[in-house]
Amino acid sequence: VEKSKRKHRHGIYRLYAPIYDRFMAPSFADGHSKMYTPLNLKPGNHVLEVGVGTGVSLKHYPAFVKVEAIDYSEPMLVKARKRIEKGEVEAEINIQQMDAHNLEFKDNQFDHSVVAHALAVVADPDVVLMEMKRVTKSQGLIVIVNHYKEKKGIIGGAWNPFRKRLGLGKHVDFKELVEECGLELISEERVNRIDTHSRMLVCQVP
Questions:
Q1: Burial, 161: exposed, middle or buried (Cβ in 10 Å; 0-12, 13-18, 19+)?
Q2: Which pLDDT belongs to residue 34?
Q3: pTM for the structure as a whole
Q4: How confident is the model at residue 8 (pLDDT cuts 50, 70, 90)?
Q5: Cβ–Cβ < 8 Å for 139, 205
Q6: DSSP string over the chain
Q7: Residue 53 region by backbone torsions, left for phi larger than 0, else alpha for psi between -120 and 50, else beta
């Protein structure tokens, strides 16, 4: 069942890839530009970005860090690689097609990890967040940016199945998820001028 869910999402994002940058990415721009600030990045830091998509976020990384950027959708990653080829990014970026439910990295490999507008569209957000926790060093930060509503309500509940089929994700209580995964919530803030429910959660690995 889970494989079929991932296959469905892969198919959806294959369709979105050609139009993502023009029609969808602008609504996420605020979150992408702000999610690196809490990391206080230093020379030599190694960062994991889960759900990099077409790579619209990559230009925000400083030249002195190394980034592993992954996504499940190869058509999206084709566009991300082109950004690097065109010299649109400064940092050392390595892009890989990978399932975030089973990260192919060692324990404690990264100084910090980030995930923007992707944790709600994966099949099992708890599994993905636990994997991010596993590969992030103790005291490292995990930054989550996503559309977030603590209580989905009647309308949210009715809209949920359609959101999932469209690849827009389901309603996830990220505060609850963070707690269940054993992470410490450091801060929460609104990051989108238009979407009042778009939030950035900064968490720390014990």
A1: exposed
A2: 81
A3: 0.80
A4: very low
A5: yes
A6: -HHHHHHHHHHHHHHHTTTIIIIIGGGGHHHHHHTTGGG---TT-EEEEE--TT-TTGGGS-TT-EEEEEES-HHHHHHHHHHHHTT---SEEEEEE--GGG--S-TT-EEEEEEES-TTTSS-HHHHHHHHHHHEEEEEEEEEEEE--S--HHHHHHHHHHHHHTTS-----HHHHHHHTT-EEEEEEE--SS-TTEEEEEEE--
A7: left
pLDDT digits (tens, 9 = 90+) for 9-53: 444 445 444 444 554 444 454 545 688 999 999 999 999 999 999
Please give the CATH number for the structural domain made up of 2-204: 3.40.50.150
Pairwise CA distance, residues 172 & 48, whole Å = 22
Higher-scoring residue by pLDDT: 1, 104: 104
